[in-house]
Amino acid sequence: MLRVKVIGLPVFYDGKRYLNGEELIINKDHFNVDLFELLEEVEVESEREKELKKLKVPELQGLLVEGEFTEKTTKAELIALIIAKETRED
Predict the structure, then answer these.
(1) Max intra-chain CA distance, the chain
(2) End-to-end alpha-carbon separation of the chain, Å?
(3) What pTM did the predictor assign?
(4) Residue 51 CB contacts under 8 Å (≥ 6 apart), including other chains
(5) Are 27 and 4 in contact (CB under 8 A)?
(6) What is the pLDDT of residues 33-62, one digit of tens each?
């Protein structure tokens, strides 16, 4: 996903009208240099990541096997490890 600013003519995106200078988030495939100025690339959180963020560190550790993390592994790192593990299992 990309955060962009409309340049020039108004743009309709996802059912809404955006005027010159307004910012919005768009799919990378929809980027057009004639319509938008690229501001930054944005990471979008998956539903699974949102679910995992609600859990406490010991609960996250319980979803992993011993040896896949250390006591110093942060919550964000635990979530990344779980997502990677689940992706491999699919």
Answers:
(1) 56
(2) 24
(3) 0.55
(4) none
(5) no
(6) 999 999 999 887 788 999 999 999 999 999
